[in-house]
Amino acid sequence: MPPAPAIGTAFDPAKCGTITGIVTWKGAIPTPPEFPNHIPQADGTFLYHTAKNPNAPQIDPKSLAVAGVVVSLQGMDPAISHPWDLPPVKVEVGDKQIVIAQGDRRGRAGFVRRGESISVASTDKTYHVLRGRGNAFFSLTLPEPEKPVSRTLNDCGRVELSSGAGLYWLRGDLFVADHPYFTVTDANGRFTLDRVPAGATKLVVWHPGWDAVRMERDPDSTVIMRMIYSAPVERITTINVVAGQTLDTSVSIP
To answer: What's the predicted TM-score (pTM) here?
Structure first.
């Protein structure tokens, strides 16, 4: 496996600009239904409850701003990018959710430099398995709370996280890259990418699919064991960054 390329060897802050923007929603606001789940109990029975859709768009009903959208730059040369400054990723599984902590931010997405490791831990007493699919393939068992394990990610691209222990609706996403131009929109749908090398670049706006396309059940218990979500929403826009200037843009999804 070739090592990750050096970052910032030709970075020149005098030849950089800033990209700011807002992501808004167009069309009807979706209301994805909650998912049924049966939790096995010690006496052999099942506890029934419903769980919220982790991929549901976070839309402000008044401004139509969308929070939690992943924004990145496509095809950035690591040599001219600014040095990697994104904090390490910690994945927490517990309380019927997958939470990705990166510095002060907590959410469903995180960004990892290729060749670096993530830390994964359970936060409750329930037995968990964190499964990675896409540009990585793994299953990490988490039998005890607060005992982290690590996993190195060696290939660029998206790694979809899910539960391998029956919590079929859970999802999270890691984006592995050779450059640090990744962020997520805030509660007002706003984002900022700074120290961007001048010139034409492709701005990528990404949101996971939220529709349940297919559910697979255990043939004996009929309990739902696996679910496939719809394809992600992705918008790619070519923009031109000018040194010393701030480019403000807007993108509408889906």
So the answer is: 0.91
